[in-house]
């Protein structure tokens, strides 16, 4: 259940990124799927590569690799699909998705560490 929730959270954060980006560029939300799918596919591939269901909240083992595959694959799919990817878009995408896909995992690790009983 934790793995599914983690995957859905990654997909939801990716969708939030897409919707925020479209809104900030005054693009209609109705076309969000065209922006979303080129990143969703590599996100799912990243989960498969890392076997993310085994350690869904791991920052480096899952989060970093899922982030790298999502950004790299998403940019390549956008280019292959004729959508373009300006350098500034790539930088913003990499930074925001790093914060989104790894950030919640960092917070989860902090909460887990704080919840552990302390040894005397």
What does this structure look like?
- This protein has 120 residues and is an all-alpha fold.
- It has one domain.
- It has four helices and no strands.
- The longest helix has 29 residues, at 87-115.
- The protein is elongated, with a radius of gyration of 16 Å.
- The mean pLDDT is 94.
Question: Order of helices and strands, N to C?
Answer: HHHH
| Helical content band | over 70%
Gross morphology: elongated
Q: What's the domain count? A: 1
Structure in a nutshell:
With 120 residues, the protein is an all-alpha fold. Helix content is 78%, strand content 0%.
Write the layout of secondary structure elements.
Blueprint: H1 2-24, H2 32-50, H3 59-80, H4 87-115
What features would you highlight for this structure?
mainly alpha; 120 residues
């Amino acid at each position: 259940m934790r793995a599914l929730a983690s995957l859905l959270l990654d997909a939801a954060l990716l969708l939030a990124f897409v919707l925020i980006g479209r809104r900030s560029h005054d693009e209609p939300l109705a076309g969000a799927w065209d922006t979303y799918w080129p990143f969703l596919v590599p996100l799912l591939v990243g989960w498969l590569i890392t076997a993310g269901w085994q350690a869904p909240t791991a920052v480096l083992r899952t989060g970093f690799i899922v982030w790298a595959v999502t950004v790299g694959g998403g940019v390549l799919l956008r280019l292959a699909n004729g959508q373009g990817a300006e350098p500034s878009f790539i930088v913003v995408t990499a930074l925001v998705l790093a914060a989104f896909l790894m950030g919640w995992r960092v917070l989860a690790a902090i909460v887990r560490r704080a919840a552990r009983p302390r040894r005397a």
